Amino acid sequence: MTAVSDKLPEGRYGHSRPADERSADERADRKLKIVGAVLGAVLLVIVGWFGYDYVSGTKVSGEVIKFDVVSDSAVEVHLEVRKDADANGYCTLRSQAEDGAEVGRADFRFDQDTGRIDKVVTLRTKARGTSAELLGCHND
Fold first, then answer.
1. Which residues contact 75 (CB under 8 A, 6 or more apart)?
2. What percent of the chain has pLDDT over 90?
3. Global pTM value
């Protein structure tokens, strides 16, 4: 009668590793799965954000290129506005005096059928303004 061996043939089923090496590999696999899940979730949030931003409507944005104090009652502001060609909107500008008090505020409408508007506007002030600040642009 032949004895049945409880031992697997050498080299047939891969290399056997000690238990501490297997647990280290399992921990590394678990960390990779967690990192992959977190990165996947972040990517999903970013794609969702851009999708929402695109679908939510047209945007009007602007930038003050430069300003010039022309008198004690006016500041000329070179404003660049970017928008969809068919969008209408307005931008709010303000001017402050040297002490920080607001001396002028006005909305300027932009209804032209172009995507980029480069315009110099005059902001009337009640005292000498020393700055020009874009508070924001909004579409109608």
1. 67, 68, 69, 95, 104, 122, 123, 125, 129, 132
2. 56
3. 0.58
